[in-house]
């Protein structure tokens, strides 16, 4: 029995974008980019949920752990419209600088 040659696999794929107008191509690019952004945002939300689950799974055992938790929450607040207010932004920077300074002094062997 002779098997007919499969002609569909012998041709190169057709680049559909090349056959559409510029407006349609632009709309397709926007849809693709939007899909990528949405996928990235979902992945970020999942990683953030995992971090929060880890950070808040049990009470802080040290001042450093408590400061790390507070730093995380302050940085979340800093990203909000209220946190971007210039006065609050300055307070946030000041508190984070305090945490960094005090953490260095609290490390073993550094006094």
List the helices and strands and how they pair.
Elements: H1 22-55, H2 63-78, H3 86-106
Helix pairs in contact: 2-3
**Unreliable residue stretches:** none
Give the helix tally: 3
Largest sheet: none
Q: Which class best fits the helix and strand makeup? A: mainly alpha
CA-to-CA gap between the ends? 88 Å
Q: What is the number of independent domains?
A: 2
The helix content is 55-70%
- What's the SSE pattern? HHH
Strand portion:
under 5%
Give the overall silhouette.
elongated
Total DSSP E strands? 0
Radius of gyration: 27 Å
Q: For the residues shown, what is the average pLDDT?
A: 85
Outline the structure in words.
The chain has 111 residues and is mainly alpha-helical. The protein has two domains: 21-57; 60-111. It is built from three helices and no strands. It has helices spanning 22-55, 63-78, 86-106. Helix 2 packs antiparallel against helix 3. The longest helix has 34 residues, at 22-55. It is elongated. The N and C termini lie far apart (88 Å).
